[in-house]
């Protein structure tokens, strides 16, 4: 926060832009933040001064509208009875009161249920608050009630004597006032009105605010409104005239209360509730509404003694209307009830100047219409509206319309200007209206708020012609290729250029009054194939809009990207009805190769849709099995391989092999048989090894078989050897 | 004396357990949201949006942004599951909340809605930048669009934009098409191209630009065309969701209720699309849609029921997973046709789209590749707007054992035949040799 003035300027811009309906609260908040940021007291004061100047001098008023049908539909939506009845009598009263003011809700069948609840709460056991709201609801519903008022009045009167908090007084006095309105048979007048007045007054503070309770030092604006309403009740219930000096001091209190009023930039006034109490958080709306209620009640009983400036009354009305349509029931009630109080007050009735449209089209020949009505939207007394001044918002001094009276259309209840003066061209203007009441007597009753500044937009069709696009040679400026453009229709031009050439685009814009027009947005966009965009603002040289792109100087900026660039032209303005975005075609650029240290084009955002989605499937490619000969071939070779065995067997037979040498005696024969069985077993073991056994089993079995075989083999062979030795020796 | 703290502790324990942390599949409901406002009047002027949230069962806690008593966490426990930051001009927050605290809040998986406007403070911009969104640096700039503005009798500067350039995603915007354009008035932002977690939900038209409508333009505006994002969402890797809007007023009752006619179009909608758009989007942000969970991940050999501890190469296996989506009240079967499983070791060996029975079960069957090693079943499901599913299950794959190879190869028969004929010959020969006379 070293430069408060810069900050304030920004703030002012914000304030201007935020001058809309719902958003005005931010203004106040920005101010608060602004102030809270200043640590130094001096800077804060300076800042506030500058800010205030800025608010009052530069910022313009915005248009507000009286209560409309949107409030009515919102009211029906917000005050919805559950199963035909409201949650509490207080809510029921607020709903009924809102409906009554807005003139709706008759189709809601809540009377029976609410009345039964009213009767319940008029019993002797109910609290003062319930009693009060029951009476209030009854005042609107006029339920059939047996005569309990006398009893209630007696009870309430005794409670006034013991009352020590503001709310007790409020409920008691309020109840008495309501009884007085509802029946004339019961005596509700207060004998000791002065005393009660004094004891309520004792709770007031020096700044015009009130305390709820003598024990509670916190004072509040909301309580001030309640106190005023209560005191107004006391005055109306008093048997004798209240001491005028008391009313005088109360008037002083009201003036002090108004000294603490806060102001928005558009002239809306409101009361801020400064206590921040977590239990009961009341915003400016409920505080202001409470004050307005109290004030109007007080003004009603003390005729003429209250003097409020008209702009404050208008400002209060602007505050309530500026809120728009509140989103909760309590706020809506506060808004509507306060506006109804303002509408019916005795001091001055605010009249609101509103414009159905602040955007006027020259092509449609829109009329300038102004409606003046009361805050609730009812017809204003006879008056005339003058367009005092109209000036372009760019040049504040040159006024284009001076002091023109608007005609009145009694049927539509609007003041209108049937033809805008010929001199009015498209553009942004500020119109200044003044409302003058026809009847001088009305000036005492109504507050018009003097002059109203309204920002206006006059729109029209801007003519575009002389559009040309050309590629120029750099040195000589001679035209290489030139093409006419039709900016109203579609174009598909194709150009080509190299980095030594220039591109020139020019066109002319003229307003309906044949003045050159300078739009807010005049962009030329070149988009490379890779989605890299370059934007140029077109400047106007006199009447002509022209841009010359010298590609030699732009090579670096274009990241040395050669190739096709799409050309897009956007021309638009708030007052230009035919704002457009046109694809003009493309230009083929031939740029030099990038040097090594050239900057890379920035990364372009990836399309979100492409980033997701399923990936391509992957299937594993299995190792191909080894190539094998066909089965037949293997079998054929098997046959071939078996042939030698066959040949061997045949050969044995042919040789006449015999077994005559086989031992004949029993023991050697047994060993020989066992020996051969052993050989057969070993061989079958090998076959089994092939078929199913593993090496270890085979070796194990082979071990045993081997030992066995060795033994029987030795016996057999030694027998054979001895036999043959015997044979030889013999 | 020592009893008192004990009683206190006993009384406090059930309370502490209700302070639930981020969105958890075990306890998906029970969501408390802190709403930070510039001004309590917003509570009334934006009540339709807040009402839609509270009617869906969220407990909203409205606080002023500079309330000194606010805090996101106490004693290390987060007090809220979501944060709505409707305090564009708040330069600092009360209590112990600052931008770092808010970023931490997202980092543990909580959700955030930020709305800015053209009074957006540095603090708000900083938080948005942390989320990968850059608001226009020019403090006075607003999004202006001279071709697709909302026709209005009272707003003539074309900053009230009617945009219908939505992201095509049912999970973000609901299955009902948004017919009416959405009204927007505020500042634009651009997305960081390097950030793949942030999505443009509502973008400006190609003729839009971001500039101060009150002053003449001398240099090209920094944001133009459809690169301007009006509303963006972020889904962090921990599934925290953030909604960033450059307009606070688009949440307001006035815009919700306003009728809208886009410039150049003859259709006048009785109600803007804001309510539908923002309600649907808030459902997404607070995980009423697009939050997936995967359960019952299982795999087995074809024909078996139990999950093996190991596969052999070339085994045929079946893989199945159940995926459910949170609907705000219950877990509903998730239906899609693009869930894929990977059989992964350093890189995917098999990537297959799962078939579904439309009741949440996704399954497939494939053959284990003939490569052994430690593999993973991986489901990396990332879909626009959905929380990402990342499942992985490790499983070793072994080669054939010695006795699992083919034993009787026909091609080897001649060799076998030779051996056996030799053996047979040998047997015969023993007789012939030993006993021939």
Report a brief summary of the structure.
Chain A is of the alpha+beta class. Chain A has five domains: 4-57, no CATH class; 69-347, Glycosyltransferase (Alpha/alpha barrel); 351-459, Immunoglobulin-like (Sandwich), CATH 2.60.40; 463-607, Immunoglobulin-like (Sandwich), CATH 2.60.40; 656-724, no CATH class.
Write the layout of secondary structure elements.
The complex is a heterodimer of chains A (730) and B (437).
Chain A: H1 4-17, H2 24-37, H3 41-57, H4 69-78, H5 89-102, H6 111-121, H7 128-141, H8 149-162, H9 166-182, H10 193-201, E1 210-211, E2 219-220, H11 221-237, H12 244-259, E3 262-263, E4 269-270, H13 284-301, H14 310-322, H15 329-343, E5 349-354, E6 359-361, E7 368-374, E8 383-392, E9 399-405, E10 407-409, E11 414-417, E12 427-437, H16 442-445, E13 446-447, E14 451-459, E15 463-473, E16 479-484, E17 493-498, E18 501-510, E19 521-528, E20 533-537, E21 539-541, E22 544-550, H17 551-554, E23 563-572, E24 580-590, H18 608-611, H19 631-655, H20 666-691, H21 695-729
Parallel strand pairs in A: 5-13, 6-14, 17-24
Antiparallel strand pairs in A: 1-2, 3-4, 5-7, 7-11, 8-9, 8-12, 10-11, 12-14, 15-16, 15-18, 18-22, 19-20, 19-23, 21-22, 23-24
Helix pairs in contact in A: 1-2, 1-3, 2-3, 4-5, 5-7, 5-15, 6-7, 7-9, 8-9, 9-11, 10-11, 11-13, 13-15, 14-15, 20-21
Chain B: H1 3-18, E1 32-37, H2 41-45, H3 47-55, E2 59-64, E3 73-74, E4 77-78, E5 82-86, H4 99-107, E6 111-115, H5 122-130, E7 133-135, E8 142-144, E9 161-163, H6 170-173, E10 182-184, E11 189-191, E12 198-203, E13 209-211, E14 229-235, E15 241-245, H7 253-257, E16 260-261, E17 268-269, H8 274-285, E18 291-301, E19 311-312, E20 316-326, E21 331-333, E22 340-345, E23 347-353, E24 355-356, E25 361-367, E26 373-381, E27 389-398, H9 413-435
Parallel strand pairs in B: 1-2, 1-5, 5-6, 6-15, 19-27
Antiparallel strand pairs in B: 3-4, 7-11, 8-13, 9-10, 12-14, 14-15, 16-17, 18-20, 20-21, 20-25, 22-23, 22-26, 24-25, 26-27
